[in-house]
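Subject: Sanity check before I submit

Could someone independently write out the structure tokens for this chain? I want to compare against mine line by line before I put it in a report. The sequence has 142 residues.
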Amino acid sequence: MAIRQISVFVENQKGKLYETLSVIAGEGINIRALSVADTNDFGVLRLITSDTDKTKEVLSRDCVVNTTTVIAAKLEDRVGALCDVIKILADADINIEYVYAFTASEDFGAYVVIRVDDVDKAQKALENADIPTLDEDDIKDI
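---
Independent answer below. Compare away.
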């Protein structure tokens, strides 16, 4: 299963991240995961939210917004769990572009969001290794 991630270009200025996040909060959208990569002039805000379509709609009013397909894999709470998932993908000859993690429950370890060059192949590799992945309905229910 794959999910859609929102990417937004945000000016690297005081208060701009707050402005963007307040628009999302004002629409009643819950942010499930977030990552920010910065440069001198702008940042790339990557988001997994409870409502991808609504997030894209409200942010598109004032920002450049892109949607990317990513995988969110469920990790066990143990040493080496992330390493094992990365090895599964490496062994399947899948390139990883970036990774970030989030937690949603004390009942298990974490979720890891993975951007890969071949989503279908990555999903199959993780499925074959019995690594659970999320879809957008799962994200809404977290």
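---
OP: Matches mine. For the report I'm noting this point. DSSP finds five helices and six strands in the chain.
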